[in-house]
């Protein structure tokens, strides 16, 4: 199959899938999601993504309709049905189905899954960024479906001819990007925003930190500002599709390019880790 969807046990091509109008996602965007890449029919970092998925649901008191092991089994079985093993594997749970009411619907949530062909970036082509004030709510550590500010920022970046938008809070603290984490290299050290309630703790972010530890590159999980961003030796964007992606421009100003050897060590390490974990048997 070219694409494949799942809704509470029903399967089909994505264009053919239907959901009840009373699913709370339609009224409130009431749910959480997670996603990651698959290569050679192997889902990368699945345990980490599923743990985060269940954590997000727990923080919103959403009752999961499956266990972690059941979800992983369903995901792998769906991946195995596809024409290609190189995929974007997306899953979400909404709070349930019922007549529109602000109070919670009782019972387990609705499980959605969507698979489509995709490749990860090898990180060799730098991206251009813009900055956008972070007006999102104060629970950015929960991977909810409420992504309007991120959609608005992403469209603004597209209109500016850029690939991603960097959020900052009042006072200039950099948090993350519209759909990525963002980090800097300063004085030979990786500086990344702390995993507090202002950022989503990215799986790729965790792998980047572990790569630095393996390569003896110091790491500082501390807040940094827009001034730090523009003055950094390197600016790195990470996500499940971009394991180590450098930025070359922000708001029309050239950035990075001052520690290329260190950046290349990280890029190669992370790409090789991904290839090793998803190699053919």
From TrEMBL:
Gene Ontology terms describing biological process? amino acid biosynthetic process; carboxylic acid biosynthetic process
Q: What are the UniProt keywords, alphabetically?
A: Aminotransferase, Pyridoxal phosphate, Transferase
Extract the GO molecular function terms from the UniProt entry: transaminase activity
| This protein's GO CC annotations | cytosol
| InterPro entries, sorted | Aminotrans_IV, Aminotransferase-like, BCAT-like_C, BCAT-like_N, Class-IV_PLP-Dep_Aminotrnsfr
Q: Does the record carry Cell cycle as a key word?
A: no
Q: Which cofactor does it need?
A: pyridoxal 5'-phosphate
Its family? Belongs to the class-IV pyridoxal-phosphate-dependent aminotransferase family.
Protein known as: D-amino acid aminotransferase
Which species expresses this protein natively? Mordavella massiliensis
